[in-house]
Design goal:
single chain; about 325 residues; mainly alpha; MetI-like fold; two-stranded antiparallel ribbon; globular
């Protein structure tokens, strides 16, 4: 009996060693994964810090020669002329004009597509339509630029004879098509997140599908939709190739969509083509514009995050 007890004790101790080893192995794996993910997060933060340092250091050299007031509130941009001027307002106006045109097309099309896919489309139809919609996101922006220049503009000129070859309207419409998948995909995810019991309660009261959408689905996802629109706006503000190809390089302070305009990103692209030698004021103006864009996009992201947290409905 004593020998049996000792044997049981030995076997018990041996049996306990395997779970202990397994726990140590699992803990080691968790620690490794934790530090890998931490390294990925730190890499992102370090990259942002390096980019910000690069922008601010070169922009500092620019503002040593050009007053910030002239840059922010000047109405003339002529970086490559003898009579140089570095007022960013014409570039800001061109950027906002093309962005507004893009959003006016992308918001109804994107949200409408998301509502159709999430509320009306059958599973078989959704499997066909959604990949086609997401295919738009994979098209290179340079293709959108030439699509705007050689397809949208010539067709618009049939109805608008005074339309310039390079114009904000065609560029904005191409940008709108480009960001439709972004709005549609994110909005569809938001609509799917609406609790089914809320929808069921609406149907139980005799509401039609359109009423459930307008009274339950959209109000519940309003904060997410607002955040998605702001994120899409940031995507449109930062677009380069479409506006460089289709909107022109004419820095005019105008809100006329039929005219040629220069956006902030196209001004950066122009300065980066080699016409601005390193260390010149034209070269440093590139970084000043980029810093301005960085600040705009950062503010848009902060506003998006605030709206989502402030208006979010929790059940």
């Amino acid at each position: 009996m004593a020998m049996a007890n000792r044997a049981d004790g030995v076997h018990g101790r041996k049996g306990d060693q395997q779970p202990l080893f397994s726990r140590k192995s699992n803990n080691l794996t968790d620690i490794i994964v934790k530090y890998i993910l931490l390294s990925a997060s730190l890499f992102t933060i370090i990259a942002i810090i390096i980019i910000l340092y690069s922008l601010t250091s070169e922009s500092f050299q620019f503002f040593l020669n050009i007053p910030a007031q002239e840059f922010l509130f000047g109405t003339r941009w002529a970086a490559f002329f003898d009579d140089k001027s570095f007022g960013v307002l014409p570039l800001l106006a061109g950027t906002m004009l093309t962005t507004v045109i893009a959003l006016s097309l992308a918001i109804p099309a994107g949200i409408g597509s998301a509502l159709f896919l999430s509320e009306y489309a059958s599973p078989s139809l959704r499997r066909i339509v959604k990949p086609i919609l997401e295919l738009l996101a994979g098209i290179p922006t340079v293709v959108y630029g030439y699509f705007a220049l050689y397809f949208i503009t010539p067709n618009l000129q049939y109805f608008i004879p005074d339309l310039y070859t390079y114009n904000a309207l065609a560029a904005g419409m191409a940008m709108g098509v480009m960001i439709i998948p972004t709005i549609a995909s994110l909005s569809e995810d938001a609509f799917y997140a609406v609790p089914q019991n809320l929808k069921a309660a609406g149907y139980a009261l005799g509401a039609r599908k359109s009423t459930v959408i307008m009274r339950i689905v959209i109000p519940y996802t309003l904060s997410a939709i607002a955040a998605i629109i702001i994120l899409a706006m940031g995507r449109a503000v930062g677009e380069t190739m479409i506006v460089t190809i289709a909107a022109g390089l004419k820095p005019t302070l105008t809100l006329n969509p039929f005219e040629s305009v220069m956006t902030m990103t196209s001004a950066i692209a122009q300065a980066a083509t080699g016409d601005a030698p390193r260390g010149t004021i034209e070269y440093t103006s590139l970084f000043a514009i980029a810093l301005y864009l960085f600040a705009m996009v950062a503010v848009l992201n902060l506003v998006s995050s605030y709206i989502k947290k402030r208006w979010e409905i929790r059940v």
